[in-house]
Amino acid sequence: MAAEMSWVKYFEDLCRTGPPWMDYSNDRVQVQTLGTAIEMSGHVVGRRCLDVGCGQGQLVRMLLGLGARDVVGVDHAAEHIGRLVAQYPEASWHAGDISSESFRAQLGSFDLIYLLEVLQYLPVPEIFDGLWAMLAPGGRILATFPNEDCPITKRTVQRFDGRYVPPPIQPLLAWARCAPGLETFGVRGFDFESDQRLAPYALSSWTRDGHWAGKLPNRLQFVIQKQPIDAR
Predict the structure, then answer these.
(1) Which run of H or E residues covers position 100?
(2) Is the model's pTM score more than 0.85?
(3) pLDDT tens for residues 14-30?
(4) Which of 226, 228, 190, 180 is nearest to 37 (CA)?
(5) What is the CATH number for 127?
(6) Residue-wise over 82-113: b if at least 16 C-beta within 10 A, else e?
(7) Which domain does 37 fall in, by range?
(8) Per-residue CA distances from 142 to 15, 34, 107, 128 (Å)
(9) What's the whole-number average pLDDT of the chain?
(10) Which residues contact 152 (CB under 8 A, 6 or more apart)?
């Protein structure tokens, strides 16, 4: 509980006084990360979306602008959620713990569920059981998170005294292979470009085994899709 409250305070402070790109290294990294999430959303128009760990709400507002029917942003940082409610009433904002079954039950079901830079604070793969139950037929879960094997990530783990715990990819992929009603899934890596004038990251090909040739990715993107009703 103490570790959980320390993260709440950390992100409350970051939302109040930090840069718009939160705990990404810079705004270009944040933009590319958000962009790849939008890229892999498939259809957005008319869909109900959930952004877990919504931070300052950029993704929520992007999804609304792209025509989503309803977008819900959730975060532990209750003080900041209160500010978002006042600033952007067109979206739905909720403070709470997505690990809580009772909190998830209040939110309903979704066509798209986003977890960008939050899996290092959640139990993985266990949290995906609850999220999968919230996902409507034909829906997708999209997650981006640090690669635990990357040297840059290892330094961050040390800086936060082990409280920052990027999930290992293999248990998540093992969970995906057994997900009921699975349509498809995949993972790809984000590796820093040597020349970042155009974009900070180069993206790998999609894979289902989580193995990488050459330099280890800095971040991983995981996408999993549930079968539509007519496919069953």
Answers:
(1) none
(2) yes
(3) 778 878 888 788 899 99
(4) 190
(5) 3.40.50.150
(6) eebeeebeebbbbbbebeeeeebeebeebbbb
(7) 2-231
(8) 23, 11, 18, 11
(9) 92
(10) 146, 218
